Amino acid sequence: MSELSAQKHSFQAEVAQLLHLVTHSLYSNPEIFLRELISNASDACDKLRFEGINHPEYYENDPDLHVRVHFNKDNKTLTISDNGIGLSQQEAIDNLGTIAKSGTKDFMSKLTGDQKSDAQLIGQFGVGFYSGFIVAEKITVESRRAGSEQSEGVRWISAGTGEFEVEQINKESRGTDIILHLREDALEYLESYKVKQIINKYSDHISLPIEMQKEVWQEDEAAEGEEPKGGQYVKTDEWEAINSASALWTRSKSEITDEQYTEFYKNLSHDFAAPLAWAHNRVEGSTEYTQLLYIPSKAPHDLFTRESKAGIKLYVKRVFIMDDADNLIPNYLRFVQGVVDSADLPLNVSRELLQESRDVKTIREGNTRRILTVLDGLAKSEDAADQEKFKTFYSEFGSVLKEGLGEDFGNRERILKLLRYATSNNDEISTSLVDYKARMKEGQKAIYFVTADSLNAAKNSPQLEVFKKKGIEVLLMSERVDEWAMNFVHEFDGTPLQNVSKGAVDLGDLQDAEEKKALEVAAEQFKPVVDQLSEALKEKTKEVRVTTRLVDSPACLVTGEGELSPQLIRMLKDAGQPVPDMKPILEINPEHPLVQKLEGSAQFDDLANVIFDQALIAEGGLPEDPAAYIKRINSLLLK
Ligand code: ADP
Ligand code: MG
């Protein structure tokens, strides 16, 4: 068969439009052509594997599937060859001349005709086979379908304009050669180091070997008695794989050792330390994917900065798509590192598409559940090593996990189960809500907690006094995130949670009728003092009232139900956020001598202000006018 029989064909209209774009747009990321072509080669080998099940003869004594990349500097060609399924003449016409893929169709429908914005779009999508035209002025495809006669090969040639030519050829080897005739501005792809670098970056985990010809250094010939002046690399006939050719996560768990998992993690994360735990699963269901997720043993330094990124790499059918695929894991699990390999996402998926994808949503939910399950397993384990791991995890990442209370309502209960706190009975940050509930007093209807700026402030908070007196345990929350996170939590396992510095204390059945009566009496008796205080402090407080929550302190500040607490207000102010002007409620202890002194005092005003400012200091704040505070104290001391 000869050139005489070559037939001209026109591209489908959309292809012509696409090619025009590819060749006329400044492609932001030209090197992806190699990823696309290698992925096609790998697909072709996958197809042969599949068809070969029923047609072993398709292997034609050439059973080792591979992709080979070679270049010819003289001809300025770069060739990607595979010994996969190959193309028949009709398939070449159909598959390379029209657009069948949904991804590309989708892409075409988004084109605006405006060159600049379209060029941006193209960078996001990737365009499969046609991406070859980013670097090639002409592409020759030579192929022969597995199992067909050698004389039934096909040559497909196009310069990426309106048409392509197809002719029948003799082709000895099965499979496809994609020969790129490189443009003058793309000759860098004739450098083996450059090509290797790209393959390592994008295709290392293709499970087929990607081979290049081995090169050896050959010195220039030198005149007698002289040193050679230089030399060059020359290609040998030997082929060597330049990728590792086996994606760890595609192997079955039983074949992988802990060392291998650890090594893979270190490579992936650039972490020197071994991970705490990992989860490796193949998930089947509405969408199919493999997850290999790691929990590191140490928080990265930037965990709390805005730049901190999720460390999940996304693969589609073993082809690397992107780093830091933050759509695959919620923000509060951003410390998780690993790989997700989807069988369903399109190869040309962009970050923008990821956001909208249903599959991605399913994967994210699956990843979240898996990590929470692993953590739960560590927390519940009887094994001392696991318990130690959970402790390490919690001290490194506990505060990030807490963000989940506000972010992931669906998993709130599961997250709550993993949280640990110090309590008024135990300084160690080890009490879970489950433990707390088990220790609740008879008649206790709520889980009590207090938030403060530090553990000490929480522990010594005046609001805790009545709880201590009655021996009721209170959870101490002293991390920055607590105040915010607890806004989203109203109950755990059917028991309400109550912030003891918010609203009136309702001890329910823990308070007997006598105590309730005493409060009423005190409120009645102290009414004139309360009124006078309200007047004296009207700039500073919203309300003054009598309380039974205090034992040793004269007064404390509380926040109205549903209002921002003083800590949260301070946090927002520190962050430069506008804060609503909110005044706290002052509660006074009718049993306290200082409070009792108020009635008829000649220094009522000084005393009132000092009591207020002290309550402010007790919960970590500062008097608005420290100098005035000191003056008042001193004047009282001198009396
Ligand atoms: P996709 O890979 O998403 O199908 P491409 O544009 O990358 O889209 O490729 C278009 C089609 O061309 C493929 O579906 C396949 O039928 C055919 N093709 C491309 N490269 C090869 C190859 N190396 N071997 C066999 N067929 C190929
Ligand atoms: Mg493809």
Automatic annotation (TrEMBL):
Domain Histidine kinase/HSP90-like ATPase: start-end pairs: 29-186
Gene Ontology, cellular component aspect: cytoplasm
Record: residues binding ATP: 36, 40, 82, 95, 101-103, 124-129, 176, 351
Record's keyword terms, sorted: ATP-binding, Chaperone, Cytoplasm, Nucleotide-binding, Stress response
Principal subcellular localisation of the protein: cytoplasm
Recorded superkingdom: Bacteria
Keyword Ribosomal protein in annotation: no
Annotated localization: Cytoplasm
Region (C): 571-639
One Pfam family of this chain: HSP90
Listed InterPro entries: HATPase_C_sf, HATPase_dom, HSP90_C, Hsp90_fam, Hsp90_N, Ribosomal_Su5_D2-typ_SF
Region (A), start-end ranges: 1-351
GO molecular function: ATP binding; ATP hydrolysis activity; ATP-dependent protein folding chaperone; unfolded protein binding
Description of how the protein assembles with itself and partners: Homodimer.
Function noted in UniProt: Molecular chaperone. Has ATPase activity.
UniProt family annotation: Belongs to the heat shock protein 90 family.
Protein name: Chaperone protein HtpG
Lineage: Bacteria, Pseudomonadati, Pseudomonadota, Gammaproteobacteria, Moraxellales
